[in-house]
Amino acid sequence: MLFTQTMVSLRYYFLALSMLLIGIPHGAIDHIISSRLYDLKGSISDQLKFYIPYLLLMFLMALVWILSGIAGFILFVIITIYHFGQADIEHLDLPDSSKRVLTISRGLMILSLVIFVDFNYTLPVIGEATGVALQEIEWLYNNSYLLAILLGLQHPFLMSFLTYQNKERFELSWWYPVLDSIVILFLFLFNDPIIGFSLYFALWHSMGHFLEMKDFFNKMGESLSVWKFYKLALPFSSISLFGLAFIYLINNSFGLEEKMVSLLFILISVLTLPHVLVVEKMLKTKR
């Protein structure tokens, strides 16, 4: 990797900035989206129809982690692969079968790059979360960067094949999505994985999700400006930021970086499960 020391010193600033500006807010209006999807009003009974299932899903995901760290990690991997692919591929005008393939391919590329580009960093975090000593799997440890390249390259190749096969559907050029996937691949391979993920999460995933929400509101007869988006997201964003600040202070006080990062990793997975289901329902309704 290039400029390693500089990147390492800046990695958490990039992560905090991406979370603050768009990462946390993009998931903080699930309750607003659900109120439009299910015609929920402001009454207590209607609000409970959202919060009880949402919190129950969070509790169940947390319970899986408590009962088995490896089961929680596997479930998180499956959910994350689907969610990243789901959000990034939705805008492409492709047959459903091609979209399904590219959804898994895209999510697999992103998660593989995050995990395997710098295995020396991610391995202790995963080990702390799952209780599994992955460094004992020698072939995985020795070939992690090669694995990142191979699992990363599969997506541009599949994207090239499927977009060219359906090139008549594209208003501009079929190779734009291919170029997009190559840019992301290089963003991770020649960068610190935390910085690479922060840039991807802010500029591709969260921003793309905001545009999908904006389109959804438009089709529901409402507008969603940037100002309105942040205003709606403010209450739950504030709660999330308070929690992150608390984790940061503990880490600074006790120097428990691996434990804190793994805890953050688990908390994100707990929040992701209900969020994915809300997004899936929103996209289906929008179509």
From TrEMBL:
Q: What is this protein called?
A: Probable beta-carotene 15,15'-dioxygenase
Catalytic activity annotated for this protein?
A: all-trans-beta-carotene + O2 = 2 all-trans-retinal
Q: Does the keyword Protein biosynthesis apply?
A: no
One BP term from GO: carotene catabolic process
EC identifiers of the protein: 1.13.11.63
Family matches, as InterPro entries: Blh_diox (IPR022270)
A GO term, aspect molecular function: carotenoid dioxygenase activity
Subcellular location, in the record's words? Answer: Cell membrane
What EC class does the entry list? Answer: oxidoreductase
- Taxonomic superkingdom: Bacteria
* Keywords, sorted A to Z: Cell membrane, Dioxygenase, Iron, Membrane, Metal-binding, Oxidoreductase, Transmembrane, Transmembrane helix
Q: What does this protein do?
A: Catalyzes the cleavage of beta-carotene at its central double bond (15,15') to yield two molecules of all-trans-retinal.
Q: Where are the transmembrane segments?
A: 12-33, 54-84, 144-162, 182-204, 229-250, 262-279
Stored HAMAP family:
Beta_carotene_diox
- Indicate the family of this protein: Belongs to the Brp/Blh beta-carotene diooxygenase family.
Give an example GO cellular component term for this record. Answer: plasma membrane
Report the cofactors. Answer: Fe(2+)
